[in-house]
Amino acid sequence: MFSNIGIPGLIIVLVLALIIFGPKKLPELGRAVGQTLKEFKKSTNSLMDDENENVEEKDKEKVKTL
Question: Who contacts 5 (Cβ-Cβ below 8 Å, separation ≥6)?
Answer without folding.
Answer: 13
